[in-house]
Amino acid sequence: MQPAAAMVGRDREQARLAAFLEAAEGQALVLRGEAGVGKSALADHVADAAARDGHLVLRAAGVEAESELPYAGLHQLLYPLLPEAAGLDATARAAFDAVFGRTEGPPPSVMTLGIAVLSLVSSVASRTPLLLVLDDGQWLDDASAAVVGFAGRRLAGSPVKLLVAVRADIPSPFDTAALPDVLVAPLADADAARLLERHSPALPADVRVLVLEQAGGNPLALLELPAHIAARHGGQAPADLFGPHGVPLPRRLQDMYGTRVAALGDAVRAELLKGALDGAGAGPAGAGPAGSAAGGSGGAGPGAAEPGAAGAEAGVGPAGAAAPVPRATAVRYRMRDAEEAVACGLLVVEPVTGDFAFRHPLVRSSVVQLATPNQRRAAHRALADVHRDDVERRATHLAAATVDPDEDVARALEEAAQSATRRGGALAAVGWLTRAAELSEDHAGRSRRLGDAAFIAGHAARLGQARRLVRTDSSGADDTAASALATGYQALYQDGDVRSAHRQVAAVVERLRDDAPDGGDPMHDRLLPLLLAVSQYAADPALWQRTHALLDSLGDLVPERARLYAGTWSDVVRHGAGWAGPVERLAAGLQDQPPWDIARLAVSAYHLDVLGPLRPHLQRVVERELETGAIASGMVMLHLIMLDGMALGEWDAAERTGQRALSLETEHGHELFAHQSRGYLAQLAAMRGQTARARELQAVVDAWARPRGIGFLSQIADSAGATAALSEGDYETAYLHALGITSPGTFRPYAYQASRTLLDLVEAALHTGRAEQARAHAVAARDAGLPELSPRLAVLTYGALALTAEDEAEAAGMYARAADHPAAARFPFEMARIGLMHGTRVRRAQGGTAARLLLAPAVEVLERLGATGWAERARAELRATGVATRGSAGGLTPLTHQERRIAELAAGGLTNKEIGRQMRLSPRTVSAHLYRIFPKLGITSRAALRDALTATPEATATPTPR
C-alpha cells in the first residue's frame, strides 16, 4: 500500500496500516483517537488501497441512536453478504435468522453467532480477499460489538481483515475486545501548519494563529474552522471569535455545522432532523454501506426506511469480483428533497444507491441540538408511525415524543422492555421501564414499573442502580415492596446479610398479603423468589420454617414455581419428593422464559440431579446474558454448568467455567456468588488431589460465610474440607468435616449438603473403624427415600448400603443396583469410589480374581479424571490382586525420608502414638502419612510393611542429600 500524497503527518500510521493490509493472514486492527483526528481518513485510505488491490471492501458505522438496539450494527455491516448465508450450514443460517428478525426465538450465544459470522465472511473471502471497515465503533451496540470482537480475534488463517475506528474519549465496547490497536494522535505542530497551509493558503496570519491554537492538531477542525470563520466574519478574526475561555472543540465544530443547518429551509431541516433522530449513518464520505438494524425497520408508508437498499448493490459480484463500495452510510429514515443540504456540505450522496448520508456524526448532533423541543418531539412522533411494526424502535420514539403521562406509551415501553429482555437486552429494558414509570398516569403504575426496573437492574448486576431507582419515588405503600426488593438484592448478593434481608422481605410479603387478601399483589412474583433465595443461602431451620409458614398463609396466591422452589431449594430430603416431574415439564418450555426463571428452574433441577437435559439451553442463554442481559442470572447459570461438568467428570471445563464465573462476580461486586464460586473451585481442587489449594479456598469461603450465618456456603466449605481429607487418606479429619454437615444416621434439616455428602461420611466412617455409624447412615438414606428423590442420591444410597452391608450377598446386590442404575454413568467419580471400596471388600472376601473386575474400571476412571488420591489407592488395591500397574514392578513412587522413617517404625510394631512421640508428630499426622505410604509401597495393610520395605529398598528410599 503506497502512502497517500494528500495525507499529512501520518507516516507511522500509514506504515502500520500497510503492514496490516499486506499481512498474509487475516487480522483485526482498531484505530483509536479523538473526534475529527483523522481516523475516518485513514480508514478511507486503507479502503481505497484495498479496493485497488482487488479486495471486496464493506463499510459500516456505529450509530449512537442504535447503540441500545441489539445487533443493529452487525446487520449494517453484514447486510450485503447475507444472501451468501444461504450456502452455509443450518446452524449458521438459524443464527442469522434469529438475530435479524427472520424467525422467532431466542438469539444465539455470542460464540454461535460469532462462528456463523466467521463462516460467512470466510466463504465470501474464499473468492476474493475481504476488508471490513467499521467507523464510529464506540456507538456500536454491545451485542454486535461482542460478536465483532469474537470474530476479530479469530481471523488468523483467513483472507479477511477487519478495521475498526473508535473515539478514544468515549467508552467503547472495543476497549476490552483484546484486539491490537493504533493510537491516532493529533498532528504535530509542524504537520498541523502544513495541513492548514495546503487547504487554506489564503488565510490571514492572525486567523491562522488562532486556528492552529484552537484546533490543537485536530485535522477536522483545521479543515472546517477556516471556512466557518470565512462564512461568519468575512475571513477576519474578531477578538471574541473563540470566546473568552475557548469552547471545547466538539462544541465549536457543532456550532460550525449549526450555522449551515440554520441556513436551510424548514422542510429540509425537518427531514434532516428525522434522519438524525432515527439513527442515521454517521461517517464522513466513505463511511460504508447502508443497511438496517437488527430486526429491520418494519416501517411502511411515506418516508419509511427501506432495509438494505444499498446493501443489495454492495455485495459480491460475478466470480467474486468486488462490487462498487458506497462512499457514505445512508440514513435509516429515507430523506427527500435534501439537495440543498448536499450543496452546503452537510450531506453527501451515496454513489451506488443515491441515498443521502450525513457527512459526519457532528452534523447529526448539530441538527438535533439546533431543533427546538417541540420540533424534536414532532419528529419522534412521525418516526414512531414509520416504525409502528417495530416494537422497540416505536417505543423509543414514542417515549421521546411524549411529555405528559400517557398510559398507552408507558405500556408500549413495557412491551419493548419485555422484547429486549427476551433478546438478552436487560440493560436496555431497565431504561425503558424507568421511562415507562415517568409516563405512568397513576402512582400504582409508576411504582410497579419502577419496581420492575429495579428487579431487572438487580438481575443485570446493577445493584446500586436498583437502589437508586426505588428511591426516586418515596411515597406510597407499594414503594416499600420495591425498596425491599432492591435492598434485599444488595443485602444478599453484595453483603451476604441473610438475616436482615429475610426479615425485611418477609415483613413486606406479610403486609402485601394483609393489604390484598383476595387478589394478591404483583410484587409477590418478585419478592417470593428473593425470599426463597435468602432462605436457601441462610440454610437456617428457623428462617425456613418462617418462610414455609408464610407461603402456607398465602394459599393459592403462591404460584406453582414458587412452591417448587420452596420444596427443592430448602430441604430436598423432606420437601423434594414429587417435584422432578414438574421440573421436567416446565423445562420443556424454556424458550420464551426470562433468564431469571430459567436460572431458578435450573437450580431446582440441580438439587434433584436432573440438570443434564437443561445444560445445553443454559450454555446457549448464558453467553447472551453475560453481555447486555441479566448478568446475575448468567452467574447462576455458570455455577450450574460448572457443577454439571464436575458431576460428569469434565473437570478441566468445569475449572474454566468456575474461574470465568469468579472473575465476573468479582468485577461486579457480587461477593456472595464470588465466594460460592470459590467454594465450588475448592471442591473441584479437593477431588483432583490439589489439597493445598482446596484448603486455601475453603478457608476464604468459611471466613466470609460463617460469621454471616450463610449456611449454604459454610456447608460447601465443609464438603470441600471433607473431600480434601479423603483425597489425602486423612479419614479422621474427613469424618470431622462430615460431622459439621450432619450426624450419622440422620440428615440435618435444611442442610442441602447433608444428602450430597452421603458417600463422604460413609467412607470416612468405615476407614476410621466406625462401621456402625456408617451403616446407620446408609440405612437412614434408604429409609428417608433418597433413591426416589434423585438419580444421584439413588446411586449413592445403593452404594452406601453395599459398602456397609454385613452380608456379602446383600453387598453384591446393592452394588449391582448402583452400577446398573440408568444414571450411573452420569456420576463417574462417585461410581469409581464405590467400585474401589467394594472391590477392596471383594478382594478380602473372595480373592483377587473377582476383585479385579471391580478395581480395574475404578483405576481407569479415577486416573482419567485426575483424582490422584483415590487413583493411588485404587492402583494399590489392584496390585494386591496380582495385576501390574503403573506404580508396580520397580515403578513405585519413592518415599520421602520422613515417610520411610515412619514406615520403618510402623513395621517394627510401634503404634501411631509411639511413632508420633519419636518423630514429634501428632498421631493423626502419622496416620495420614501411613495412608499415603501404603499406595506408594503397593500394599493395603500395616502387616505388609516389613516385607515391602525389605523387598524393594531401592525403589522406596529417597537419597539423602550429601
From TrEMBL:
Disordered: annotated segments: 283-323
Keyword Iron (UniProt): no
One BP term from GO: regulation of DNA-templated transcription
Low complexity compositional bias, start-end: 303-323
Keyword DNA-binding: yes
Single GO term (MF): DNA binding
Gly residues composition bias: residue spans: 283-302
Domain HTH luxR-type: 888-953
InterPro entries: AAA_16, P-loop_NTPase, Sig_transdc_resp-reg_C-effctor, Tscrpt_reg_LuxR_C, WH-like_DNA-bd_sf
CDD domains named in the record: LuxR_C_like
UniProt name for this protein: Regulatory protein, luxR family
Upper lineage: Bacteria, Bacillati, Actinomycetota, Actinomycetes, Kitasatosporales
